[in-house]
Amino acid sequence: MKINKIFIKIFLSIFLTVLGMSVIFFIIANNYVDKKYKSFFAYELNSDKKIVEHALTSLYVSGKTDSVQKLVDEYGYFINRRITVIEPNGQVIADSQSDADDMPNHAYRKEIKEALEGKEITNIRYSSTLNKEMLYTSSLIKINDNPVAVLRLSMPLETINIFANEMKITIFISIIIVLCISLVVASIIAFKISDKITHLKDASLKLASGDFSVKINSQLKSNDELDQLSNSFNLMAEQIETLFAKTREEKDKIDKIIESVTDTILVIDKTGRIIMHNSAFEKHFKRINPNNNFFWEIFRDEKVEKTVKELLSDKTDVLSSEIEYENKIYSFSATKIKTNETIVLTFHDITAIKKMALMKKEFVTNASHELKTPLTAISCFVENIENEDDLDTVKHYVSIIKKHSERLTKIVTDLLDLSELENSKNIEFIKTDLSKIAESLINFYKNRAEQKNLKFEFIKNEGPFTINANEFYIEQMFMNIIDNAIRYTEKGTITIKLEKQDDKINLTIKDTGIGIAQEHLPRLFERFYVVDKARSRKSGGTGLGLSIVKYITNIHGATITVDSKINSGTAFMIEFLAFQNI
């Protein structure tokens, strides 16, 4: 049994209460026993006195006063009491336990005085004759209303005390037994109560620490108030657990929603301190730790500060604007939550949108310019033909018109190809061998390459080099890259390399041409983007070929990268997923 403070307090409370009550009971019982036994023996003494009184009166009536001592002796022996007869003047004439002649005058004794006054009293006093405490009772004997003697009966107080003490010892033993029983009962009660309270305390501490599955399972069931409290606690814990489970579930849902949002979300309090953020913040603002910082320490932008101040001043609830941060453009909105005086800032990266808008603008401008140039040339030369009579000059103008018409046709064709790639949804994919396509196109471009003294080199390791693809689009991709390689390479070699690595097939098309400066590489796949516009027009380029290549790799789930240096050639690296037999 584990002893704790609660057990000791309860045990001592019960035991000390019982002990105190036992002491009080013992004191009261002692007084009661003393009083009761004295009263009882006084009653017995008075009863005996009446017997002796009757006999003594008869003796006086008969005139046999000389037989008083004999009568006193006989009755004293028979009833085991001290009997004393005293004349009205206080002279002792007979005593059952002492010599009357040796006894002093008793006129001054209280019981004698009272008896002579006609009173029957019982009193306790010290006997100088017997040298002990005695219980006395006396009465006046009258003959024809004349007092003739005082009859006194007495007994030692120690005799009464013997009986009383026996009863006191019995009471004391009973109290000791009761105290022993109370020790056991107090221990049991204290243990039961302390056990239940300890279970309640331990369960409360666990509940306070967040363990809502805690239950009170006391082995001591009595269905008392503490058990009812335990049952109420268990019910409360279940309800709290259910409530917190729902709260956690709702919080998890909200957290998942917030974490799934690609926009940056910040929550700030009314002082401007950041109290919450989502993972998108760390993605967009990698070098900043928002924890316990103020928003103005991160966004040193007047628009953001002004927006927050306006919201805090209760002028409005929602505001939005745009800011620039580390070469990126963000659209941000700020919403005030009135219930807890917090502000939610949402930042959406619109850099790509702005860039796309700029690209669209440039595309329209470039397309207009690319289309306008051949159309203007055609229009001008048509006017010249109308006013020209020389046949050779007309033929020259017609050849120029034909050239620009072909360029215009190629631009429109490439634009249609791009549009088809962008809008194609149900493209048919089949098992396609990249090695065969490469060999076929090498033969196709062989004569054109030889005209510029260029050589083709085809390198491949062990295949197969099959992918799941649209064969037409893959051929177009090859042709656009090879066409550029031939166009911008004056000498050297065009290398086509196929390499199988696990479930990947790497295609590399490399030339030894003029190369591309590093600053142009990021925009190389943009529509109508050309590094050298004059050379591109002269060679018949439209600025759309590599955009088409990029779209083709995208729809095939492939990745394309470019490596190039000025006067060292250009290499296009494309990684495909190898064909998987299902």
Number of domains: 5
CATH topology of the largest domain: Beta-Lactamase
Cα Rg: 64 Å
Mean pLDDT value: 78
Question: Could you outline the blueprint of secondary structure elements for this entry?
Answer:
Elements: H1 5-62, H2 68-79, E1 82-86, E2 92-95, H3 110-116, E3 121-127, E4 132-143, E5 146-156, H4 157-208, H5 225-260, E6 264-268, E7 274-277, H6 279-284, H7 295-298, H8 302-312, E8 318-325, E9 328-337, E10 342-349, H9 351-386, H10 391-423, E11 430-433, H11 434-444, H12 446-451, E12 454-460, E13 466-469, H13 471-487, E14 492-501, E15 504-510, H14 533-539, H15 545-555, E16 559-565, E17 569-577
Parallel strand pairs: 12-14
Antiparallel strand pairs: 1-2, 1-5, 3-4, 4-5, 6-7, 6-10, 8-9, 9-10, 11-13, 14-15, 15-17, 16-17
Helix pairs in contact: 1-2, 1-4, 4-5, 9-10, 10-15, 11-13, 13-15
What do these coordinates show?
- This protein is of the alpha+beta class and 582 residues long.
- The chain folds into 5 domains: 5-163, PAS domain (Beta-Lactamase, 2-Layer Sandwich); 210-258, no CATH class; 261-349, 2-Layer Sandwich (Beta-Lactamase), CATH 3.30.450.20; 354-420, Helix Hairpins (Orthogonal Bundle), CATH 1.10.287; 425-577, Histidine kinase-like ATPase, C-terminal domain (Heat Shock Protein 90, 2-Layer Sandwich), CATH 3.30.565.10.
- It is 53% helix and 21% strand.
- The protein contains 15 helices and 17 strands.
- A 5-stranded antiparallel beta sheet has the order 2-1-5-4-3, with helices on both faces. The protein has a 5-stranded antiparallel beta sheet with strand order 7-6-10-9-8, with helices on both faces. Strands 12-14-15-17-16 form a 5-stranded mixed beta sheet.
- Strand 3 and strand 4 form a beta hairpin.
- Helix 1 (5-62) runs antiparallel to helix 4.
- The protein is rod-shaped.
- It starts with a helix and ends in a 5-residue tail after the last strand.
- The model has no long low-confidence stretch (mean pLDDT 78).
